[in-house]
Amino acid sequence: MCNVFRASEPLAGRRLSKVTERRTKADWAFFVQAIAASYPEAARITLVMDNLNTHTPASLYEAFAPEQAKALWDRFEFVYTPKHGSWLNMAEIEINVMVSQCLDWRIDNIETVTSEVADWQDRRDKLQAKVNWQFTTQVARTKRKRLYPTMAS
């Protein structure tokens, strides 16, 4: 069993992946650090993510010295999807594509997973495969009606 951390820049067709043995706070913190290192010129990086218990400032402070953790936290704008809104997270969409294209078979070691994910990512990046997001607020209110309460007039 292993974990794949995923970040994508949907309009540029660029993605970052990291395969880890577990999904710990430290693993997530080091992945955030890798994202920051991938965008050295960016003053601020927007990261949309789910509400997983590791996705907190505490994870950064547990992994890094306080000054480094604070600098890293300040470099990002963290946007959390609604609790039952993984369909809003483009990285989740990319994960589903990745699973169907390269991880849809039994793999018994992390080295093979790492290699498969890296090869898939290279292919997708070379194609500059983008996520064509077409889900509007109106469509969401229609298709996900139970998630959008209405006000009685």
What would your notes on this structure say?
The protein is an alpha+beta fold and 153 residues long. The protein has one domain (3-147): 2-Layer Sandwich (Nucleotidyltransferase, domain 5), CATH 3.30.420. It has helices at residues 25-38, 57-63, 66-75, 90-102, 110-127, 137-143; strands at residues 3-9, 14-20, 45-49, 76-80. It has a two-stranded antiparallel sheet. A two-stranded parallel sheet has the order 3-4. The protein starts with a strand and ends in a 10-residue tail after the last helix. The model has no long low-confidence stretch (mean pLDDT 87).
Principal-axes geometry comes out as globular
Give the DSSP E fraction (strand runs of 2 or more residues).
Answer: 15-25%
Which class best fits the helix and strand makeup?
alpha+beta
Can you identify the CATH class? Alpha Beta
**Rg calculated over all Cα atoms:** 17 Å
Instruction: Classify the helix fraction into a percent range.
Output: 40-55%
Distance between the termini: 51 Å
Topology:
Layout lengths: L2 E7 L4 E7 L4 H14 L6 E5 L7 H7 L2 H10 E5 L9 H13 L7 H18 L9 H7 L10
Parallel strand pairs: 3-4
Antiparallel strand pairs: 1-2
Helix pairs in contact: 1-2, 2-3
List keywords for this structure.
153 residues; alpha+beta; Nucleotidyltransferase, domain 5; 45% helix
Summarize the structure.
The protein is of the alpha+beta class. Helices cover 45% and strands 16% of the residues. Strand 1 and strand 2 (14-20) form a beta hairpin.
